[in-house]
Design brief:
The chain has 12 helices and 12 strands. The chain has 357 residues and is an alpha+beta fold. The chain folds into 2 domains: 108 residues, NADH Oxidase; 218 residues, NADH Oxidase. The strands form 4 sheets. The chain has a 4-stranded antiparallel sheet with strand order 1-2-4-3, covered by helices on one side. It binds flavin mononucleotide.
Length: 357
């Protein structure tokens, strides 16, 4: 039994978003006001998390969600990062302290409803008051870059298409795509449900068939233009059909775990603000990840041609956002005035997230 209000706070914080819905956290309750977050990354199986930064961003979204979830109880968490136990794991000690500041009700209410919208969105331009709310949502030192005109969205969509072609042809990404989709599902506790991907029925059928083995995927890619269909649907069309693409820019290029966690907090504030303002969001992280891997000379794939293409993504990002800004870009997404997603990832029950279970 977890004492109240800690139970309610953790239960709410569970709704923080994480890359591929991995929820890379467990909670160890110490007493009424103290607990430990045991964080891990997913580099051992996820090519997109080779350097652990995607998981660190997710931990940041968790800390921001905890902070908001504690406000209604007049509490605020103090976080203390413990030493890394190994490269893949670290712990954060959390103490709940008295809080007399304002309750950010709109953001708190948005915690359970905020979700990814992966379908094409209306291209209705962002209203000025919403633009202002988005710019004001990120913490001091962070800023937003926004691309919203048709020609800008087209430029970003083409870059996303090229990035999609890398993903679908990358042998190292195949097991990730295979394992993170829960087939034939509308909701998924620990993965992404198939219906949330927004593919048409024929593409879904082909994907299901092909994903059974890398041999099939490779055959489709070589002889049936297999990577093009998903890249057109999931990357090019959606890249165009939105109100804008948004880049969160950190004060400096993140240098370690603390910087990535801080960036994750900015991500969750932006995402919750969008939800509170009736805007939906989809992260577009792989171009940033590929560009970073190239900048830091990480061999994310054995296929040289794909590494060359990733280098091209890095150059395109520099062109789109500016060579001085792109390396500080910690989160990229598209936003728009769309309906809430009807298929979504849900979460593991709190009892499954208790450390040592
Ligand atoms: C750091 C991070 C990176 C993500 N990258 C992507 C992405 O590139 N594409 C995408 O469609 N969703 C991405 N997501 C969204 C997650 O898949 C999603 O948050 C998770 O499955 C939980 O679903 P929910 O946000 O609908 O609750 C990302 C989320 C986080 C926190």
């Amino acid at each position: 039994m977890i004492p109240e209000p800690l139970h309610s706070i953790l239960d709410s914080a569970r709704w923080a978003p994480s890359g591929d819905n991995t929820q890379p956290w467990q909670f160890e309750v110490v007493d009424d006001l103290n607990f430990i977050i045991h964080a891990h990354d997913t580099r051992d199986w996820c090519v997109y998390d080779r350097d652990g930064h995607a998981s660190e961003l997710s931990i940041g979204t968790l800390l921001e969600t905890l902070t908001l979830a504690a406000q209604p109880f007049g509490l605020q968490p103090r976080f203390e990062l413990q030493d890394h136990t190994d490269a893949q794991r670290f712990a954060i000690r959390v103490s709940l302290m008295p809080y007399a500041g304002p309750r950010e009700r709109a953001l708190i209410n948005a915690i359970p409803t905020r979700s990814v919208q992966r379908l094409p969105m209306p291209q209705t331009a962002l209203r000025d008051e919403h633009l202002a709310a988005l710019h004001a949502s990120v913490p001091q030192g962070y800023s937003l870059q926004i691309k919203s005109s048709l020609s800008e969205r087209w430029q970003v969509a083409r870059m996303l298409f090229a990035s999609g072609l890398i993903r679908y042809r990358c042998p190292e990404a195949y097991p990730v795509h295979r394992d993170i989709i829960e087939w034939d599902a509308t909701f998924s506790e620990d993965r992404i449900p198939e219906h949330a991907l927004g593919a048409d029925p024929l593409t879904r059928m082909l994907m299901r068939w092909a994903m059974k083995s890398w041999k099939r995927v490779d055959w489709m890619n070589r002889y049936a233009g297999g990577a093009i269909t998903p890249a057109l649907q999931f990357d090019l069309a959606t890249g165009l059909r939105c109100a804008a693409h948004v880049l969160i820019v950190a004060p400096s290029t993140p240098a370690g775990t603390l910087d990535w966690i801080a960036a994750g907090r900015a991500v969750q504030r932006l995402w919750l603000t969008c939800e509170a303002e009736g805007l939906r969001l989809q992260p577009e992280m792989t171009p940033l990840i590929f560009a970073r891997f190239m900048r830091e000379q990480q061999m994310f794939t054995q296929v040289e041609k794909l590494r060359d293409e990733a280098r091209n993504i890095q150059q395109r990002l520099d062109t789109i956002w500016g060579a001085d800004i792109a390396p500080r870009g910690v989160f990229m997404c598209r936003v728009g005035y769309a309906q809430a997603a009807t298929s979504r990832s849900i979460r593991r029950p709190l009892r499954h997230l208790l450390h040592g279970r």
